[in-house]
Amino acid sequence: MPTKKEVQKVINEIKPVLQRDGGDVELISVNKGVVKVRLQGACSGCIHAQQTLKYVIEDMIKEKVKGIKKVENV
Q1: DSSP secondary-structure letter at 58?
Q2: Residue 41 bridge partners (DSSP)
Q3: Which fold has domain 4-73?
Q4: Beta pairing, strands 70-73 & 34-41
């Protein structure tokens, strides 16, 4: 099972990319292959937030952490 520590390591790699545009992401939980995050700053109201979640955050986490099924914004 993937651990919160493994996912947090990847989140820490993603943060600088989001922070450049005034956004951020916080890891909330990892449970049964589902990662819950909270988009913050500019990301929370951005029209591209779903794309960022799917094609940046989710893809990178799935690539680097085995056993992740999906990433959800809460």
Answers
A1: I
A2: 23
A3: GMP Synthetase; Chain A, domain 3 (3.30.300)
A4: parallel
C-alpha 40/C-alpha 20 separation (Å) is 13
Per-residue pLDDT of the chain (74 residues; tens, 9 = 90+): 889 999 999 999 999 999 999 999 999 999 999 999 999 999 988 899 999 999 999 999 999 999 999 999 99
- Kindly list the domain boundaries of the chain, sorted by start residue: 4-73
Whole-model pTM: value is 0.93
Q: What are phi and psi of 40, to 5 degrees?
A: -130, 170
**Helix/strand/coil for 2:** coil
